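Marked as duplicate of an earlier ticket. Keeping the data here for the record.
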Amino acid sequence: MPVIAWLSGIVIAVVVAVIVYFFAGFYNVSALRPGNSVMSSALESIREASVERHAEATPPAGLDDASMVQAGAHEFVEEGCVMCHGSPGVKPAKFEQGLDPQPPGVDDIGQDMSAAEVFWIIHNGIRMTAMPAFGGHTSSDEQWKLVSYIRHIRQVTPQQFATWNADMHPPAPREGEKPDSDRD
């Protein structure tokens, strides 16, 4: 019986310590300082498990069609995705440097995810990140176009992206920087 009481006391003390740590302001929420690696890892695991569990949408036919990829590139600029994620030949906006967690860039966005998972993220957004939910103001058709582009973004050249969006005026490179046209 003393062992159970001792273990119960330890558990209660740990719970109280965790509550005090978070709710008394000891946990620093500043985006300027590196986050707690345990907390960051836990949140990443929670995010991945949640997306995997909830992503049930069935991709439409033609998700890999060139016309759908091109339409998705247009949506990518129109919806402002390029500001945080960049695109072939276009760097993200300067404010992206201050986001924590950092949004995935051209080489990472949507990789290792199913089309349904990418769609779910676009549709619902991700809490505690800068990823907004597009489900409230864009159609499913527009969101699937984004999925198509994201899944093919690594194959799109800077020239293709610029041509497809010539009427959209994507953000210019930062002052003193050259366009990211050296992409393989």
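See parent ticket for discussion. The chain has two domains: 1-28, 61-164.
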